[in-house]
Write a structure and sequence with these properties.
single chain, 328 residues, alpha/beta, Rossmann fold, 2 domains, seven-stranded mixed sheet
């Protein structure tokens, strides 16, 4: 072998070896699977809260942790396939968001990978966990109570529009929690001496038809039942409410911030932040079975005063005083 060739081979080896060693010393970033019933377009704020929760726990997306996203965009029958796709990847934890159907799809996809959910109703009744304090198995998470506050929302919209003896209730029959929620609303209406007109809507055309029916029947107010499909149609629902000058009570503050009249519920961004914190704890070695299910302790009542003026709604002073935030 010529001397120059020998030097080249040795020199190449001396350069390549440290590079290979460095590659072995830097393990791949842990991977989180993120499953949502909603869409990327309507989850900008909550995704920012999720990433903030990761960062506060020491995981920065793209630097120290990777996230693989799947969105069903309100098409619930897509969730099992999307959950299975994520479960087939080398994820360390699966975060399911956007309600019960997302969590159930995640549970069906894996009994091994840790799962952190955000849902709106009782996870024990759904069979997701054994108890709040000791979830057991591979699942835990946050119950944001989105589907358990319909009675309060009905009372608020009645106080906001006291002349409304009948209140329309829009509900998605394809969402698993709808039947219970509608039952709760009907029971609350009876206690308040009100009538409710339940209108089912699970497509864009059915939403349009529901508003047309409300106008024809001259119903004076609407309460929207919590549903991830409606989250994906937030802009449409708010625009129709304003167009028909129909006072509407929503379940997330995002609706009021985008021009809806009023909302009552938890700050859903906090729920996503807590889900990120739980995912981070699992990445650090915690087991879902040892992480109790979290429930919120604070609820927000938000009124958009600008929209009230546009609709000709006079907000009673008692409600203004009760509101946690007035959007001018």
């Amino acid at each position: 072998m010529r001397r120059r060739e020998f030097i080249t081979l040795v020199g190449g080896a001396s350069v390549a070896w440290p590079l290979g060693a460095r590659g072995q010393q830097q393990p791949a970033m842990p991977l989180i699977g993120f499953l949502s019933s909603r869409s990327p377009e309507d989850t900008t704020q909550v995704l920012a809260a999720f990433r903030s929760g990761l960062a506060e726990s020491g995981f920065i997306e793209g630097q120290t942790v990777a996230v693989e996203y799947r969105f069903a965009r309100g098409q619930y029958d897509e969730l099992p396939k999307l959950a299975a796709e994520l479960a087939s990847k080398p994820i360390k934890v699966l975060v399911s968001t956007g309600g019960e159907l997302s969590a159930l799809a995640a549970k069906a996809a894996t009994s091994v990978i840790p799962i952190v959910f955000t849902i709106g109703s009782d996870p024990v009744k759904l069979g997701l966990v054994a108890s709040y304090a000791r979830p057991g198995g591979n699942i835990t998470g946050i119950n944001i109570l989105a589907s358990m506050l319909e009675t309060k929302r009905l009372a608020l919209v009645h106080e906001l529009i006291p002349k409304a003896t009948t209140i329309a209730v829009m509900a998605d029959p394809k969402f698993s929690a709808t039947a219970v929620e509608v039952h709760n609303v009907e029971r609350a209406a009876h206690a308040l001496g009100l009538q409710v007109r339940v209108l089912h809507a699970s497509t864009d055309d059915e939403i349009d038809a529901a508003f047309s029916t409300i106008a024809k029947e001259r119903i004076m107010a609407l309460a929207l039942i919590g549903d991830p499909f409606y989250d994906t149609r937030r802009a449409k629902l708010v625009a129709l409410s304003v167009q028909y000058k129909l006072p509407t009570m929503y379940y997330f503050r995002e609706f009021a911030e985008d021009g809806g009249l009023a909302s009552y519920g938890v700050d859903v961004r906090q729920g996503y932040r807590q889900a990120a914190e739980y995912a981070a704890r699992i990445l650090k070695g915690a087991k879902p079975a040892d992480l109790p299910v979290i429930e919120p302790t604070k609820f927000e009542f938000v009124i958009n005063l600008k929209t009230a003026r546009t609709m000709g709604v006079e907000v009673p002073p008692s409600l203004s005083a009760e509101a946690d935030e007035i959007i001018e």
